[in-house]
Amino acid sequence: MGNFFSVVIFIAVSVLILIIYYTLKNLYFRYNERLIKSKIQKKRYWDEKKYIHNYIKSLLQDLESGQLNWIIISSRLNPEAKLELIYNSVKKCIQIQHRIKKVDKDELGVLKNLGLQTYDIKNDLFCLNVSLNSKIVTDIVYFILENNSEQKIALNIKIVRSGG
Question: What is the pTM of this model?
Answer without folding.
Answer: 0.78
